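Protein folding task:
====================
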Amino acid sequence: MAVLNIYDLAGNQTGTVEVKDSVFGIEPNQAVLHEVLTAELAAARQGTAATKTRAMVKGGGRKPFKQKGTGRARQGSIRAPHMVGGGVTFGPQPRSYEKKVNKKVRNLALRSALSAKVAAGEILVLDGTIETPKTKTIIALTNALSANTKQLFVVNDLATEADYNLYLSARNLENAVVLQPNEIGVYWLLKQEKVIVTKEALTTIEEVLA
Protein backbone atom coordinates (compact mmCIF):
# COMPACT_ATOMS: atom_id res chain seq x y z
CA MET A 1 0.00 0.00 0.00
CA ALA A 2 1.09 3.57 -0.69
CA VAL A 3 2.22 5.58 2.34
CA LEU A 4 1.67 9.30 2.90
CA ASN A 5 3.38 11.49 5.47
CA ILE A 6 1.33 13.26 8.13
CA TYR A 7 2.28 16.77 9.25
CA ASP A 8 1.07 19.09 11.99
CA LEU A 9 0.36 22.81 11.57
CA ALA A 10 3.99 23.63 12.36
CA GLY A 11 5.14 21.53 9.41
CA ASN A 12 6.61 18.75 11.53
CA GLN A 13 6.10 15.14 10.45
CA THR A 14 4.08 13.32 13.08
CA GLY A 15 3.59 9.96 11.38
CA THR A 16 2.49 8.16 8.26
CA VAL A 17 -0.76 6.73 6.93
CA GLU A 18 -1.34 3.87 4.52
CA VAL A 19 -3.72 4.56 1.65
CA LYS A 20 -5.40 2.22 -0.79
CA ASP A 21 -3.43 1.34 -3.90
CA SER A 22 -6.69 1.20 -5.84
CA VAL A 23 -7.01 4.97 -5.38
CA PHE A 24 -3.48 6.28 -4.85
CA GLY A 25 -1.28 3.62 -6.41
CA ILE A 26 -2.54 2.82 -9.90
CA GLU A 27 -0.73 3.36 -13.19
CA PRO A 28 -1.99 6.76 -14.46
CA ASN A 29 -4.07 6.48 -17.63
CA GLN A 30 -2.89 9.37 -19.81
CA ALA A 31 -5.69 9.04 -22.37
CA VAL A 32 -8.40 9.20 -19.71
CA LEU A 33 -6.68 12.14 -17.99
CA HIS A 34 -6.69 14.03 -21.29
CA GLU A 35 -10.34 13.22 -21.95
CA VAL A 36 -11.57 14.35 -18.53
CA LEU A 37 -9.33 17.43 -18.42
CA THR A 38 -10.66 18.51 -21.82
CA ALA A 39 -14.23 18.01 -20.60
CA GLU A 40 -13.60 20.04 -17.42
CA LEU A 41 -12.07 22.92 -19.37
CA ALA A 42 -14.95 22.82 -21.85
CA ALA A 43 -17.53 22.89 -19.05
CA ALA A 44 -15.86 26.00 -17.62
CA ARG A 45 -16.54 27.97 -20.81
CA GLN A 46 -19.46 30.37 -20.54
CA GLY A 47 -20.79 29.97 -24.05
CA THR A 48 -22.61 33.32 -23.91
CA ALA A 49 -21.28 34.87 -27.15
CA ALA A 50 -24.17 35.94 -29.36
CA THR A 51 -24.97 37.97 -32.46
CA LYS A 52 -28.30 39.12 -33.85
CA THR A 53 -29.77 37.37 -36.83
CA ARG A 54 -31.84 39.39 -39.32
CA ALA A 55 -34.95 38.31 -37.40
CA MET A 56 -33.62 40.00 -34.24
CA VAL A 57 -32.60 43.34 -35.75
CA LYS A 58 -35.09 46.17 -35.28
CA GLY A 59 -36.58 47.98 -38.26
CA GLY A 60 -36.70 46.86 -41.86
CA GLY A 61 -40.45 46.67 -42.05
CA ARG A 62 -40.50 48.48 -45.40
CA LYS A 63 -38.27 48.80 -48.43
CA PRO A 64 -35.44 51.30 -47.80
CA PHE A 65 -36.07 52.90 -51.20
CA LYS A 66 -38.24 52.27 -54.22
CA GLN A 67 -37.64 49.31 -56.49
CA LYS A 68 -36.87 51.19 -59.72
CA GLY A 69 -35.48 54.44 -60.91
CA THR A 70 -32.68 55.04 -58.38
CA GLY A 71 -29.87 53.33 -60.29
CA ARG A 72 -29.10 51.26 -57.21
CA ALA A 73 -29.55 47.55 -56.63
CA ARG A 74 -32.99 46.67 -55.35
CA GLN A 75 -33.24 46.18 -51.58
CA GLY A 76 -36.04 44.73 -49.55
CA SER A 77 -34.92 45.38 -45.96
CA ILE A 78 -32.21 47.12 -43.98
CA ARG A 79 -32.05 43.98 -41.80
CA ALA A 80 -30.38 41.95 -44.55
CA PRO A 81 -26.88 40.64 -43.62
CA HIS A 82 -25.10 42.68 -46.31
CA MET A 83 -26.54 45.97 -45.01
CA VAL A 84 -24.73 48.05 -42.40
CA GLY A 85 -26.37 47.29 -39.06
CA GLY A 86 -28.13 44.26 -40.49
CA GLY A 87 -28.24 40.76 -39.08
CA VAL A 88 -25.20 38.49 -38.89
CA THR A 89 -25.13 35.29 -40.92
CA PHE A 90 -23.96 32.15 -39.09
CA GLY A 91 -22.81 34.17 -36.09
CA PRO A 92 -22.26 32.61 -32.62
CA GLN A 93 -25.28 31.86 -30.46
CA PRO A 94 -25.46 30.92 -26.75
CA ARG A 95 -24.52 27.27 -26.35
CA SER A 96 -23.17 24.75 -23.88
CA TYR A 97 -19.68 23.37 -24.39
CA GLU A 98 -20.14 20.54 -21.89
CA LYS A 99 -18.99 17.09 -22.89
CA LYS A 100 -20.46 13.91 -21.46
CA VAL A 101 -18.04 11.86 -19.39
CA ASN A 102 -19.06 8.55 -17.84
CA LYS A 103 -18.76 8.24 -14.06
CA LYS A 104 -16.33 5.34 -14.30
CA VAL A 105 -14.11 7.32 -16.65
CA ARG A 106 -14.11 10.36 -14.35
CA ASN A 107 -13.38 8.11 -11.38
CA LEU A 108 -10.42 6.56 -13.20
CA ALA A 109 -9.11 10.00 -14.16
CA LEU A 110 -9.23 11.20 -10.54
CA ARG A 111 -7.46 8.07 -9.32
CA SER A 112 -4.85 8.49 -12.06
CA ALA A 113 -4.20 12.11 -11.07
CA LEU A 114 -3.98 11.25 -7.37
CA SER A 115 -1.63 8.34 -8.08
CA ALA A 116 0.61 10.58 -10.16
CA LYS A 117 0.75 13.08 -7.30
CA VAL A 118 1.63 10.36 -4.79
CA ALA A 119 4.37 9.01 -7.05
CA ALA A 120 5.83 12.52 -7.27
CA GLY A 121 5.61 13.01 -3.49
CA GLU A 122 3.24 15.94 -3.87
CA ILE A 123 0.40 14.84 -1.57
CA LEU A 124 0.73 15.71 2.12
CA VAL A 125 -1.67 14.89 4.94
CA LEU A 126 -2.49 17.58 7.49
CA ASP A 127 -3.42 16.72 11.05
CA GLY A 128 -4.31 19.73 13.14
CA THR A 129 -7.04 22.22 13.95
CA ILE A 130 -6.81 25.96 13.33
CA GLU A 131 -8.53 27.56 16.29
CA THR A 132 -8.43 31.12 14.93
CA PRO A 133 -8.31 31.95 11.21
CA LYS A 134 -4.90 33.43 10.39
CA THR A 135 -3.22 33.58 7.01
CA LYS A 136 0.16 33.64 8.77
CA THR A 137 -0.52 30.11 10.01
CA ILE A 138 -0.89 28.76 6.47
CA ILE A 139 2.10 30.74 5.20
CA ALA A 140 4.28 29.29 7.97
CA LEU A 141 2.96 25.79 7.21
CA THR A 142 3.62 25.99 3.47
CA ASN A 143 7.08 27.42 4.05
CA ALA A 144 7.92 24.59 6.45
CA LEU A 145 6.69 22.02 3.93
CA SER A 146 8.46 23.73 0.98
CA ALA A 147 5.01 24.01 -0.58
CA ASN A 148 4.83 27.76 -1.07
CA THR A 149 4.26 27.68 -4.85
CA LYS A 150 0.78 26.46 -5.80
CA GLN A 151 -1.26 24.66 -3.15
CA LEU A 152 -4.50 22.74 -3.23
CA PHE A 153 -6.05 22.30 0.21
CA VAL A 154 -8.70 19.60 0.47
CA VAL A 155 -10.96 19.84 3.53
CA ASN A 156 -13.72 17.42 4.41
CA ASP A 157 -16.63 19.77 5.14
CA LEU A 158 -16.71 23.57 5.19
CA ALA A 159 -19.71 23.40 7.49
CA THR A 160 -17.39 22.39 10.33
CA GLU A 161 -15.55 25.10 12.21
CA ALA A 162 -12.08 23.57 11.81
CA ASP A 163 -12.33 23.22 8.03
CA TYR A 164 -13.92 26.64 7.64
CA ASN A 165 -11.10 28.23 9.64
CA LEU A 166 -8.59 26.61 7.30
CA TYR A 167 -10.53 27.99 4.34
CA LEU A 168 -10.54 31.49 5.85
CA SER A 169 -6.82 31.24 6.53
CA ALA A 170 -5.89 30.15 3.00
CA ARG A 171 -8.30 32.09 0.80
CA ASN A 172 -6.16 35.24 0.72
CA LEU A 173 -3.12 33.41 -0.63
CA GLU A 174 -2.63 34.12 -4.31
CA ASN A 175 -1.86 30.55 -5.39
CA ALA A 176 -3.93 28.59 -2.87
CA VAL A 177 -7.23 26.84 -3.62
CA VAL A 178 -9.46 25.21 -0.99
CA LEU A 179 -11.88 22.50 -2.11
CA GLN A 180 -14.01 19.75 -0.62
CA PRO A 181 -13.69 16.09 -1.77
CA ASN A 182 -16.75 16.36 -4.03
CA GLU A 183 -15.28 19.45 -5.74
CA ILE A 184 -11.81 18.23 -6.68
CA GLY A 185 -11.18 17.61 -10.34
CA VAL A 186 -8.37 16.62 -12.66
CA TYR A 187 -7.73 20.26 -13.56
CA TRP A 188 -6.88 21.39 -10.04
CA LEU A 189 -4.95 18.22 -9.21
CA LEU A 190 -2.69 18.75 -12.22
CA LYS A 191 -2.44 22.53 -11.96
CA GLN A 192 -1.50 22.85 -8.29
CA GLU A 193 1.97 21.61 -7.37
CA LYS A 194 1.24 20.49 -3.80
CA VAL A 195 -1.94 18.86 -2.50
CA ILE A 196 -2.48 19.19 1.26
CA VAL A 197 -5.32 16.96 2.48
CA THR A 198 -6.83 16.80 5.95
CA LYS A 199 -7.09 13.33 7.49
CA GLU A 200 -10.89 13.43 7.37
CA ALA A 201 -10.90 14.46 3.70
CA LEU A 202 -8.45 11.67 2.89
CA THR A 203 -10.83 9.11 4.36
CA THR A 204 -13.73 10.54 2.36
CA ILE A 205 -11.75 10.44 -0.90
CA GLU A 206 -10.86 6.80 -0.33
CA GLU A 207 -14.46 5.87 0.42
CA VAL A 208 -15.80 7.59 -2.69
CA LEU A 209 -13.16 6.51 -5.22
CA ALA A 210 -12.27 3.02 -3.97
Observations:
- The radius of gyration is 27 Å.
- The CA atoms of residues 181 and 208 lie 9 Å apart.
